[in-house]
Give the backbone structure.
Amino acid sequence: MLLRGTISAPLPSLRLRNTTSAAPPQNVAVSWHSPTNKYSISDQDLDSRGFLLHRTTADLNLDHLNKVFVAVGFPKRDPAKIRIALDHTDSLLWLEYAKTNRPVAFARATGDGVFNAIIWDVVVDPSFQGIGLGRAVMERLVEELVDKGIGNIALYSEPRVLGFYRPLGFVADPDGIRGMVYSRKPKKQK
């Protein structure tokens, strides 16, 4: 999916163009006016619920993050490779549950810093899904990218969660744009 366009205010009151395709990766064109509330869950509400918002990897335990990845169906990752990926990340947000000091929601973006960004690894611990944490992280991450002047924001998504991203301004393949992915097939071992 891709978020593309001139954006002048935060996400909640989006006006989107209609599209008919839902094949990933996808693309979006968005414009909006300033809403009354900046986020669906304010920073103060997150804090009062016991969630601490982080924008750096300081205090992020990679083993705990990896457990969230595995809990949502991602393969377990080598923590050293996670560190390298995070070192090459332009923007990230994660929520820590203060009672456990563990990450419960996470998203990150890479890009060229000017025109394009791709959002990766959007996860919410299954025990905390359905209470708005994914939306809270995504609203802030997209806003941060837009504030940097980035006009094209893409993400890859499993078909079963496309409905989560649409209210945030992401739509499928506007203008007939189709993405392609290069993938090496593992060599057969003999």
